[in-house]
Amino acid sequence: MVDKNEIEGGAKEAxxxxxxxxxxxxxxxxxxxxxxxxxxEGKTQKNYGKVKDAVRDQxx
Length: 60
Known about the structure:
Blueprint: H1 4-26, H2 29-59
Pfam family, one: CsbD
Protein name: CsbD family protein
Family: Belongs to the UPF0337 (CsbD) family.
């Protein structure tokens, strides 16, 4: 079963990629940096969900 953190993290990571690309396209360095931060947060949340799933699988 996929943990909700994996889904939410993946969505945040994807949104961050879009935000970074938009920032590059319009020359907005702040938006580009925010997109990179969102990607890192999303990746962390997604990995947390994967670990949580692995632990749940091991204890079941």
